[in-house]
């Protein structure tokens, strides 16, 4: 399902951990990997560029060797420009199935200030993006570790039953067909949409949405040998999702990158992007199909 993927690297210790974490994606059909480094404006000046290219080529070849030992067919590219433009354009040109990038977890208070290449790519992607969670090791000089995504990872699928969420569910169905065996389906009754004026209808909403979750559970069980749990909670979506990730030791969250309310996402930042920043798990974000309604 993820036959060809683009892996974004900056050749840092974090990206070394990212590359080391990818053998599990082979179980999901990954075969070909394009390893991409994006040159920034400081690296393209006269004299600097020639030196930079020699250093970068050496770093890329080391990471290429790691990926080839994992069984991938690998190409490397050094391209000039912003990652959000370069990586997404390349993904379209190459008809890639997946973009892979690494990022550390950020505190809720750091969201306004943080602006990293991984999140820029995520915001603009037209193909699914797997954000691999990196963690700096506490021991000084020990580098980074990364969560390894494979078919044994507990997976969380939060859904608001929107069109984009159903597109993401299609990806989850394929993952189960490839062997993913442990899935939690989650729907949050959004406190901001229900309280206080619709609280008298909460039980009605719960009955409807529990039935929806049960339908999704049956669909997954028809795809493969999978243990599926359903959870229905009331609260603030990104807060409740993070709670479930921590309670169930979730390693991978799969969700659509857009929800029901585009205006609210524009003003406040979408739930999916909050999750990508703040949960201690990898996140697979599935964008809407071109022209799809949100």
UniProtKB/TrEMBL annotation:
Pfam families: Usp. Transmembrane segments: none annotated. SUPFAM superfamilies: Adenine nucleotide alpha hydrolases-like. Residues 1-133, 155-287 form the UspA domain. InterPro entries: Rossmann-like_a/b/a_fold (IPR014729), Universal_stress_UspA (IPR006015), UspA (IPR006016). Belongs to the universal stress protein A family. This is Universal stress protein. It comes from Anaerotalea alkaliphila.
């Amino acid at each position: 399902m993820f036959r060809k993927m683009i892996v974004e690297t900056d050749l840092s210790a974090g990206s070394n951990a990212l590359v080391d974490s990818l053998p599990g994606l082979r179980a999901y059909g990954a075969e070909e990997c394009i390893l991409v480094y994006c040159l920034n404006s400081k690296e393209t000046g006269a004299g600097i560029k020639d030196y930079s290219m020699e250093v970068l080529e050496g770093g890329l070849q080391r990471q290429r060797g790691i990926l080839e030992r994992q069984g991938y067919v690998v190409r490397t590219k050094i391209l000039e420009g912003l990652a959000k433009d370069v990586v997404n354009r390349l993904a379209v040109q190459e008809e890639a199935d997946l973009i892979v990038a690494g990022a550390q977890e950020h505190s809720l208070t750091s969201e306004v200030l943080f602006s990293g290449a991984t999140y820029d790519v995520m915001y603009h992607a037209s193909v699914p993006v797997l954000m691999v969670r990196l963690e700096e090791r506490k021991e000084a000089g020990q580098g980074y570790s990364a969560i390894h995504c494979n078919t044994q990872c507990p997976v969380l699928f939060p859904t608001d039953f929107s069109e984009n969420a159903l597109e993401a569910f299609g990806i989850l169905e394929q993952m189960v067909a490839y062997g993913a065996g442990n899935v939690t389906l989650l729907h949050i009754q959004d406190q901001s949409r229900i309280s206080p004026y619709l609280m008298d209808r909460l039980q009605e909403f719960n009955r409807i949405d529990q039935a929806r979750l049960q339908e999704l559970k049956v669909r997954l069980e028809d795809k493969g040998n999978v243990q599926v749990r359903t959870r229905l909670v009331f609260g603030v979506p990104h807060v409740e999702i993070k709670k479930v990730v921590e309670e169930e030791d979730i390693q991978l969250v799969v969700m659509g990158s857009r929800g029901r309310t585009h205006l609210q996402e524009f003003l406040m930042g979408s739930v999916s992007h909050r999750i990508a920043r703040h949960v201690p798990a990898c996140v697979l974000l599935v964008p809407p199909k071109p022209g799809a309604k949100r």
